[in-house]
Amino acid sequence: MFSRYVFVLLAVAGACADSKAPIRYGETTKAALLADRGQPTEAQKPIPGKDTEVLVYPDNQKYQVTNDVVVAGFREPSRDERSLLYWRHRFKDCPTTFEALNKPTSHLHPEKELKCDREGVSVIYDPNTDQVTRVVEHAQK
Length: 141
Prior knowledge:
Blueprint: H1 2-18, H2 30-37, E1 42-44, E2 52-56, E3 62-66, E4 69-75, H3 84-90, E5 97-100, E6 112-116, E7 121-126, E8 131-138
Antiparallel strand pairs: 1-2, 2-3, 3-4, 4-8, 5-6, 6-7, 7-8
């Protein structure tokens, strides 16, 4: 009986130790992100000379930091989230916008973005296949 309580206590303590503070885009500082997630595997400077960097973590989660504040997060879609139809259904009660993104310089097809500013989520997708390639989280409006 005692061992069962010890097991439950250890399980709860382990779950609390693994929990990460939610990222509040537009509010969470770079220092808070580093304290929570640890050091990134890579830091990219997409715009030379600007105070913007993208921190890359092992799970391919990326965070854009501008002026020491986390302004956006980028991740790969889960299995269910790969279809544009999933997102159209999820955003059915949210005013959405579609935008064409800049044409890639490589051989890839141009991509489009479906935005739901109220939820603070955008998805980048291939308009030829309606397959989502990235999920972008940002401050809600």
